[in-house]
Amino acid sequence: MDYSGLIAELTKGLANLQAGNLVMLAAGGLLVWLAVAKGYEPILLLPIGVGCLLANIPLTGMTGEGGLFALLYQVGLRTELFPLLIFIGVGAMIDFSPLLAMPKLALLGAAGQLGIFGVLLLAALLRFPLNEAASIGVIGAIDGPTSIFVASQLAPRLLAPIAVAAYSYMSLVPIIQPPLMRLLTTKAERRIRMAYAPRPVSQRARVLFPIVVTVLAGILVPAATPLISMLMLGNLLRESGVVERLSQSAQTEIINVATLFLGLTIGSTMSAASFLNWDTVSILLLGLLAFALDTVAGLLFGKLLAAISRGGINPLIGAAGISAFPMAGRLAARLAQEEDLDNFLLMHAMGANTAGQLGSVMAGGVLLALVSGLR
């Protein structure tokens, strides 16, 4: 009996396995290991890693026309469906009361986005087209859904490295931010106590806030409307108090299913052909720089507010002006308590952190409008 045909069929996958596939299989395995063994953003890195593994196994048909991943990409990423569903869940989780009680913290959320535009200029100087430079810069907000939303519209070919960078750096917030926070603040500044006696925030204000923000953002920055409206819809479900089941579904089932399929789809774009190039290395480095610059800008603006208020603002909360909610806020509060166990900054830091969440969405809309206007 001639077994040559059978052997050829059984070894077809091995015969089509290339060196680049092996590298990406190792990369996918690393992401899974970081998720399982180290606990780095497992809800995202685990499905991304699995998607990467499957995308680099030859001849599965999953990434080709009609395949599972091709379908998920068309339905969930090209339409921006997955990021928007995730934003509904994020909005349902956020309590904007600290920000409403201390509106001045919105300034820290704005300052925490300055690195985005600095890296945009740097990427443009490095000869990235403006649309790709804008997509790279938005990594600095450390807001995965916003990064994916912007990249899917402006630079689809860079979607995989941008998404991996955004979510990887989100998991590394507790590692990357503390050295910068200690470097740029003095011990005395880190020990500043901020009184927490805010004005009470009524339910009417909490319900009106998402509605007003949606309308104003839609008028001023129309390109940001899809993201900001879904974020505010989730928050309205939470604050209205009349749709508890919808609010809980947004915070659990909806965001979990969307995150699972988003991670798998992002991972499936990490093929050797699209991922193993110098652009990927540049994106990872520029994204890290954008993250660092956003943190530095927030801290320096926090120091300015501390000086203006004569010690009334702890500059550590400036680092929470990025969008990595709620990690950045908790981290700022924890570093303050390392210097003084009785220093409670959590509510102030969360106010800055929620402002950063809004700021990153607005920055993404500004970038979309900017690039569209210059094309």
The share of residues in extended strands comes to under 5%
What is the approximate shape?
globular
Q: How far apart, in Å, are the first and last alpha carbons?
A: 65 Å
Which spans have pLDDT < 50 for at least 5 consecutive residues? none
The major pleated sheet works out as: none
Instruction: Kindly name the structural category.
Output: mainly alpha
Q: Give the rounded overall mean pLDDT.
A: 89
Note down, in words, how this protein is organized:
By secondary structure, the chain is an all-alpha fold. The protein has one domain (12-374). It is built from 21 helices and no strands. Helix 3 runs antiparallel to helix 4 (42-55) and helix 6 (81-93) packs across helix 17. The longest helix is centred in the last third of the chain and has 31 residues, at 278-308.
Keywords summarizing the entry:
mainly alpha; 73% helix; 375 residues; 21 helices
Gist?
With 375 residues, the protein is mainly α. The chain has one domain (12-374).
Give the helix/strand layout.
Layout: H1 4-10, H2 12-15, H3 19-37, H4 42-55, H5 68-77, H6 81-93, H7 97-101, H8 106-111, H9 114-125, H10 130-137, H11 144-154, H12 159-171, H13 173-184, H14 187-190, H15 203-220, H16 225-240, H17 244-268, H18 272-275, H19 278-308, H20 327-339, H21 346-374
